[in-house]
Amino acid sequence: MKVAVTGATGFVGSRLVERLQTQGNQVLILTRNGERARRVFPSSAFPNLEIVTYAPREYGAWEQSLSGCDGVVNLAGESIAEGRWTPERKQAIIDSRKLGTQRLVEAIAKANPKPSVLVNASAIGYYGTSETATFEETSTPGRDFLAQVCQVWEAEAQKVKDAGVRLVIIRTGIVLGMGGALAKMLPPFQLFAGGPIGSGRQWFSWIHREDLVNLILQALTREEMEGVFNGTAPNPVPMAEFCQTLGQVLNRPSWLPVPDFALELLLGDGAKVVLEGQQVLPKRTLASGFQFQYPNLKQALESILSQA
Description:
Helix content: 25-40%
Oligomer: single chain
Order of helices and strands: EHEHEEHEEHEEHEEHEEHHHEHH
Largest sheet: 7 strands, parallel
Distance between the termini: 33 Å
Shape: globular
Strand content: 15-25%
Radius of gyration: 19 Å
């Protein structure tokens, strides 16, 4: 296959590109920063890779590069977990997804020949937060800012169906791997100062990075997969259990609670993702026949931290 990827230098995208390359696929990277992409993906290690610099919200010559691609994976978007959510930053978070996806969908529609599938990222923020409710792919959206972001993002992706292109939307939970959210949670535990974050009662819906990449790869190749799939492991846990399990795997205590304000200092308003959780189950994902390599948290953390 020839697959175009946006957000390729990110935590999930970089691993996806590695896996696509290993499988012998051609990869086209659409990136705002060509220099950085060339550092992450040196040509000596990635011979089947093409890097195209683009401005995701603008029309340009980059659109022509999608002609002849078999599939597109859209992972691009302004980081939610960095810094305060000022009005300007909130707008940037929405626009990067709304306008970036809008331009990408228009380019797919104009491509000749067209890609047959768009795999578009979204997030479980779509459902809003709750300590008591359980959410699956058919659940109604929430009403907070992140739910609004996800609805706008998905609405733009839906338009690709007008061009006869199959659409798969993956609503991801908190992705665990060496890096990402876990990298920010590890230091207190390594210093024997780890413990429950916030109330500890909030739900932590997670997925191992390898499982998420496998789900994206399956979505690219399985023609019967269409619509929304939750990118979350089948066994979400309360935050207190997550921290206790992390302490066990690290052989460190989990006793010192991390107060809300400390996490807000570290993550800014992005702390809401961790402080206010939701219990999300991958009902359609499992029904599609997808098999999780890491369905349980302890097994996932042991796999990740054994590589540290």
